[in-house]
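Sat 14:20. Reprocessing the chain from the morning session after the first attempt stalled halfway. Input below, unchanged.
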Amino acid sequence: MNEDVNIRLKARDEATTAFRKAGAASQRFSKTVSSAMIGLKGLLGGLALRATLGKALAAFTEQEQAAREMDQALRTLNDTSEESRRRAQEFASSIQAVSVHGDEAVLRLQALGVNMGKLTGEQLERATKAALGLSKAFKMDASAAMRPS
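Finished this time. Tokens:
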């Protein structure tokens, strides 16, 4: 019977040692996974920031290109005044504030109106609004709505 007790005690001791080792290994694994998750969060956060900055840069570049197109259109009419440039930009921003159209799209539409119809000032603004309205009503491209038929 004494031998039976010794076998049970030895088995218990070996099982306890095995469970302690398994517990320690589990804790090390948990720390490793936790560290990996922190690294992954940092990587994903960095990628998200990079994507956001890329989109912002693309939008800025598109805005600058549209402004250059409008400036070029105004120059075809020998209008290099800051007033005309400012008015076009303010009008585009006002349309953007109340619609789904970005100011760069409105600037391009205005440039088309200047180039095709030699429109300026209030005429250009009315024609741009009309083209946007037609494009929505008839589900067509705003540039096509601006072109004379």
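The mean pLDDT is 82.
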